[in-house]
Design a protein that fits this description.
By secondary structure, the chain is α/β, with parallel strands linked by helices. About 30% of the residues lie in helices and about 25% in strands. Strands 1, 2, 3, 4, 5, 12 and 13 form a seven-stranded mixed β-sheet that branches. α2 (about 100-120) packs across α3 (about 140-150), α2 crosses α7 (about 255-270) and α5 packs parallel to α6 (about 210-215). The protein is globular, with a radius of gyration of 20 Å. One of its GO terms (molecular function) is mRNA 3'-UTR AU-rich region binding.
């Protein structure tokens, strides 16, 4: 499937809905997966699962949202690669006035994903833990490293280049491994004196999965949020490992959960605990180039699309 820029009719919001004119749109690798058919959806479709915009219309009888409100959303429904879109009012959160639109658009999905991974996935990351984060200079990886460092963890990060290594170190990685130059499994075992790490956060998938298991200590936790090949359950047995494949939306099933997660993310941005690197900004009409650059690993940090109008 290819991305095609075209005009469509947005329409008016129905009961429980709002219309939002997008100001900034976050780009995530899951958008590439949908475009390439890795994740199934009806076609044709509008990609994108993260945006910040201004409310331009409110559905009949709706309270709690007004025209002019600045709101953000992440997750469902898909369709943020658009100048305007209709959204359920229940999925948006208010954006604090001091947070830049591009920052907010790039932090919602990635930030709440980091919150889920560090604070909700089976066990909490705490002071004294050692964790391994793959793609440490990526959008989610950067936030994971910063947040885990603030929680008192020792953070080991893997990256592909010297430039990304410098970024990962700035983001709180105590040890940075350039996996194109050295064996990350050997380095993790060296850093941990052969004990292994209590937890690995692997957004890459099949190229790193087996190595990630080798990096874990006995009864360690493998948090996979990439695209690994199927593995036999027996691969976990030699160290009695735990494995989880979390999905952010399963941790945001109520309005209270959504507001709490987004609120903690925005508070950490406002306090500078989390620094958001919006390193790549493209016009919305040039989304195909953004996808190409992302797939070719030419980007690091966050990518944002800005509507042309």
């Amino acid at each position: 499937m290819v991305l095609k820029w075209e005009e469509v009719e947005v329409g008016e919001p129905k009961e429980g809905e709002i219309r939002v004119r997008n100001k900034a749109i976050g780009v995530n690798f899951i958008d590439v997966y949908f475009r390439k058919g890795v994740y199934a959806t009806d076609v044709p479709f509008t990609p994108g699962r993260e945006a910040v915009g201004v409310v331009t219309a409110v559905g009949p009888g709706l309270t709690g949202r007004e025209v002019g409100d600045i709101v953000a959303y992440a997750g469902n429904p898909m369709g943020s690669y658009s100048e305007e879109q209709i959204l359920p009012a229940s999925v948006v959160v208010p954006v604090p006035p001091l947070i830049d639109h591009k920052v907010a658009a790039s932090i919602m999905l990635k930030g709440m994903t980091a919150h889920m991974l560090l604070r909700r996935s089976l066990r909490f990351v705490e002071h004294g833990h050692t964790i391994l984060v793959h793609a440490a200079a990526g959008g989610v990886g950067s936030l994971l490293c910063q947040w885990a460092n603030a929680l008192g963890a020792t953070v080991i990060g893997t990256v592909s280049t010297e430039e990304k290594a410098a970024q990962a170190a700035e983001d709180g990685c105590h040890h940075v491994i350039i996996y194109t130059k050295e064996d990350f499994v050997a380095r993790v075992n060296e850093i941990t004196s052969g004990k292994g790490a209590p937890a690995v956060y692997d957004s890459v998938g099949k190229d790193t999965f087996q190595g990630s298991l080798s990096c874990l200590m006995f009864r360690g936790l493998m948090v996979s949020f990439g695209r690994p090949d199927p593995i036999p359950l027996s691969d976990l047995a030699p160290k009695s490992l735990f494995l989880t494949r979390p999905t952010m939306m399963h941790y945001l099933q109520t309005g209270d959960e959504l507001l709490a997660a987004a609120g903690e993310v925005f508070a950490n941005v406002a306090s500078r605990l989390l620094r958001v690197h919006v390193n790549h900004v493209y016009p919305l009409s040039d989304a195909s180039r953004a996808h190409a650059d992302l797939e070719e690993r030419k980007t690091f940090g966050s990518i944002v699309l800005i509507p042309d109008s």
